[in-house]
Here is the input.
Amino acid sequence: MQLNQHAKLSIAPMMDWTDRHCRHLHRLLSRQTLLYTEMVTSAALVRGQALHLLEQSQEDHPVALQLGGSDPDELARAAKLGVEAGYCEVNLNVGCPSDRVQSGCFGAVLMEQPGLVADCVAAMSDAVAVPVTVKCRIGVDDQDPTVLLPAFLTHVIGAGCERVSIHARKAWLQGLSPKENRNIPPLDYDLVLQMKARFPDLHITINGGITSLDQAQAFLAAGLDGVMIGRAAYHDPAAILCEADPRIFGVGKASLPEDAVVQMLPYIDDHLAKGGKLGQITRHMLGLFAGRPGARAWRRMLSEGAHRQGAGPDLLLEALRQIGPRNDLQRTG
Here is the structure.
């Protein structure tokens, strides 16, 4: 299956959430969904030599590396490091609205400099053989998205970008916190659909406020090429990922979160043997049984027990015994 096919459904890059442990869990739930790293800054890789940020398991592919930065040469060098580490795509962050990102002149503030974004995309595309993609907003602050977004897309297409993920909200860099920017600016799905009609050869993935596979299927049916889901997939991964392969990709069969827990045990053993901590992994598993009988006991046992001395895989098996049978009627996507 080609990478663009995997991009029919993807899990958004989320700071402090989509680390390698989270991605391993998500891969056990869906073999096909495209996964993204947390944003890694080009400066951290190139100037800071923080190559540990690229650690991953080849078993979890396909995985895309998201980079933050605004220096074309530095981004090109960081992209090469990412490809050498085995990532199959490099994505440029042009959507994050945090203060730290603004001060570093990357993220959503780059929506104001489409020419620079194009230079960055071109430099990375020249440096690596894997796809270079962009994740953006529909605009920032007082920009008119109906004017800004098509102009922005024209620039990145000209630089060689063939796939864009669009968070269908503005980012307000003045007046809203990063958390508020995730839900206060109104969603404009229609504008993203209009961009697909205007740029039919551009692979467009829609992002923002999508919480179910039903919604994902509706967007795909409407002509979009991909759907990216963020917080909903993190807080209730089974609802999004367990049925993704048969419903979105038309392959395989639905997975079970119970099976994923058992499959995580060797991974946890290996992590602990290397000096890691159980809570570094189990914090991503708290929502695995959301809505199921026993889910509260599951969360409590992991939250309270993962940090205790000697805690290991036995804790997960004990917590798993608290989960009651699944009600198949409650999961419709």
Summary: The chain has a mean pLDDT of 94.
